[in-house]
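fyi for ur records
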Amino acid sequence: MPSHVLAAFNENAFLGGPNAPLQATAVASLTLLVKHILTVFVQGGARFGAGMRPPEDVCFMPKAGKQSFDGTAKAAERGNEDKALKKALQNEQRWTRIVANDLENIPLGLIIAWGSLQSPRSPPAHVVLVLAFTVSRILHTVTYAAGKQPHRALAFFGGVLAVVGMGVNGVLGAFAKK
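which gave:
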């Protein structure tokens, strides 16, 4: 390829050129939004399985059995010693904790990502850190759902370090002499 064509491609390519930090932050935001929506849908299904949906929601999944906010209606229907119900209750708790962890970490991570985008000391570092945060949060969900340790902890701390890195990169950029 001629060098001027290659230069034009690199300048306008995804995650290339001066728009790379903005592109990475936008793609990460959309990716984490889709991940959150999917996670909430899985959690909703787990809540049906455990009988922990509002009673009126039984009309959406009648085969899921009785529903109550605390799961007691299904427990009374199936018995407290039902192994499948116990497993469903544990699964519901796992997905509830995944969603809670996401709600504790993703909004702040994205606030730092968009804030540090305004003045990154190193735009390439911003791209790497935003992608690391996104991958870490996805891996955290996957490993939490699968019950894998220390993988879950490593993914969690990878996300935390990426957010701290984005924050430091943004602060250093804000105080850099231009």
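DSSP finds six helices and no strands in the chain. thats all i got for now
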